[in-house]
Structure formats: structure tokens, C-alpha cells
Description:
Elements: H1 4-13, E1 18-19, H2 26-37, E2 42-43, H3 45-55, H4 69-79, H5 84-91, H6 95-108, H7 114-123
Parallel strand pairs: 1-2
Helix pairs in contact: 1-3, 4-6, 4-7, 5-6
Amino acid sequence: MHNEAQMAARALKVGAAGYATKDSDPALLLTAIRRVAAGGRYIDPDLADRMVFEVGLTDSRPLHSLLSEREFSVFERLAQGANVNDIAQQLALSSKTISTHKARLMQKMKLNSLADLVKYAMEHKLL
């Protein structure tokens, strides 16, 4: 059976406006109904604490959104098959600078190889 914190996180991720457990205080349930009816959101306070520690709600933005403009430019060119020297020439920068951008973007995106980079680009329709 799924952990309640995980279930709540999934429900909220797919659009639920609120989440209460069967163990929630009945007085809080009325508060939850009013808040959601008014267009707000509600999560049982005890459950919210568990969600933070058990599920660790994370940023859901794609990893490539963490890149600077220059890093993303290097990322695109690498995904298209260009090598460090080609990119350096295209951007009028040194190969060492491009290598640094490449290392940083690979680290930020938790990629281990150029094959991983190309796969990521294809999966996210960036090619």
C-alpha cells in the first residue's frame, strides 16, 4: 500500500485542490472545505509535515531550465553533434571556456555522457 504522504503528493501534482486524511480533525475538515470552495488549497497540517520529510517535495522544473543562456546554447550544440572546438569557433570563445560550460551543464543536469545528453534532449523534444 502506498504511503499517505506519497499519495497526497501525487494527488496534488495532478490537480487536487486539497487533501485530508481519514484521521484529520473534523473541525479542520470544515476549514478545508471552505478554503477549497473559495478557490484556495488545503493540506492537513500533520500530513504537510510528513510530506516535507517523507516525500521531499522537489522542484518539478526540467533540469535544462537550470542552465544559463550560454550553457543552454552549448547544450543545444552538443546535442546536435558539435564538438567543443566547433562550438568554441561558432561562439567566438576558447575551447577551455566551452569545456567549462560543458562540465557545468553536465553536472547541473546530472548527465554522465554525451549519449545521456542527446537522450535527454530527445526525450524533452529539444532537438
